[in-house]
Write a structure and sequence with these properties.
- The protein has ten helices and ten strands.
- With 269 residues, the protein is of the alpha+beta class.
- It has a six-stranded antiparallel beta sheet. A four-stranded antiparallel beta sheet has the order 3-8-5-6, with no helix packed on it.
- The radius of gyration is 21 Å and the shape is globular.
- The termini are far apart.
- 25% of the residues are buried.
Length: 269
């Protein structure tokens, strides 16, 4: 199998991918702490790119739009430990602790190597080999240990982990102009802008005078046209970054809007 996942419990997993690449769109409801054992991970946000290699440890904050692309590298599969830090668990953790939560973040957080963090994450590996039900109290202890270590080695992380606010109603037009490349269900776009699906569609029509689906396709193809004509990129190098799931669908949509395929346009340059 190209892709395998082994769970300690619902909050701890070890994933292994041996295919060409594995892409997903994310706006996780939990913070996700990732320890990359081998391979490479590329994370694309609206205004920033991150590339992480083997040995990297990073946190993807909850409710943040990102395209995540995982690659095998150097003859090794993409292998990673992922730990979900749920709101419930963090509320329980911080319940009797003094903490501040004035400042959050929309950025991926990269942690420098530290013996405490390395030791904690390394200690998880043997547990993935246990086939029987893993004791929940031990899994809970390991997650709480990781949270405590993150607080000890990075004082700024507390403002992220101890912030439990849900998205409020924000400027829909500015948000969509910034995040149109992400393939999220409309319900998710609505939630991230502080709206129900019905209100999101109504406000979207007022802002853009067309349906979300039509506008998203139009914007993505305009960006693709720019990548082809100005940056001279090949479709295979960017189609997933502008919001398309596969190359054939991208080529079909591009021809429908511009009257020629990307290949035909490139031939004219």
């Amino acid at each position: 199998m190209d892709y395998q996942v082994n769970y300690i419990n619902t909050e701890l997993k070890l994933s292994c991918y041996e295919g060409k690449l594995f892409k997903t769109e994310a706006a996780f409801q939990d913070h996700l702490l990732v320890w990359l054992l081998s391979g490479e991970t590329k994370i694309i946000q609206a205004d920033e790119r991150f590339v992480f290699g083997a040995g990297s440890t990073f946190l993807i904050p909850r409710n943040q739009l990102a395209t995540i692309i995982n690659y095998p590298k150097d003859g090794l599969p993409h292998k990673a430990v992922a730990m979900h830090l749920s709101t419930k668990r963090l509320k329980d953790f911080f319940d009797d602790k003094s903490a501040k939560s004035e400042i959050g973040t929309e950025k991926i957080i990269h942690f420098q190597q530290h013996p405490l963090l390395d030791s904690c994450l390394n200690s998880l590996i043997p547990y993935f080999e246990i086939q029987n039900d893993f004791p929940e109290n031990i899994a809970s202890l390991k997650i709480n240990e990781a949270i405590a270590i993150l607080r000890a080695i990075d004082p700024k992380i507390e403002a992220v982990l101890n912030n439990f606010e849900e998205p409020g109603k924000i400027d829909l037009k500015a948000f969509m102009e910034k995040n149109f490349t992400f393939n999220m269900p409309l319900e998710k776009f609505g939630y991230l802008t502080g709206r129900s699906l019905t209100t999101f569609k109504r406000d979207f029509q007022k802002a853009f005078h067309m349906t979300p689906q039509r506008w998203l396709t139009k914007k993505r193809l305009e960006l693709a046209y720019y990548e082809l004509t100005e940056k001279k990129k090949k479709p295979v190098d960017f189609y997933y970054e502008v919001g398309f799931e596969n190359l054939s669908h991208f080529s079909f949509a591009f021809k429908k809007q511009y009257g020629m395929t990307p290949r035909e346009l490139m031939g004219q340059q």
